[in-house]
Amino acid sequence: MAQRLNYFQQSPELAKKFLEFSNALQGSTIEQGIRDFVNIRASQMNGCAFCLDMHVKEAKIHGERDLRVHHVAIWRESTLFSPRERAALAWTEVLTQLPPHGVPDDLYDRVRTQLSDKELSDLTFQVMAINGWNRANAAFRNVPGSQDKAFGLDKAGLN
Prior knowledge:
The protein is an all-alpha fold. Helix 3 crosses helix 8 (about 115-140), helix 6 runs antiparallel to helix 7 and helix 6 crosses helix 8. The two termini are about 20 Å apart. The chain is built from nine helices and no strands. Helix content is about 65%, strand content about 0%. The protein is globular, with a radius of gyration of 16 Å.
């Protein structure tokens, strides 16, 4: 499948503002490893090949172990994730596919045992950002790996 259009070229100001929003998340209270897992899991759920490819490579560059990256899709069954990482992945899933009546209280309460109010707020913005990118990249069929050189992802050694 070929890319449909380049939304950065068509809406440069909006794309730039959304990128600024996403870049601001680098300074959040959520550690890089969890942000990588959040980006991977949401991208898996949304079927966004471009973003999944990108965030797997980023996780590798950030030093994440290969097996943990492979286990993101099965995090509930895996023994490789901490309670904090599990809380972040559960929050990612519920916000990526909102249930008909919103976030259940029991899930909210469980996540709150692992994250402070500020961390939960920051994590929510992280999930919002990746879901936005997933939607744009899936809609316009951006080709996985096509921006590796531009984003420095060729350093992952996963070509």
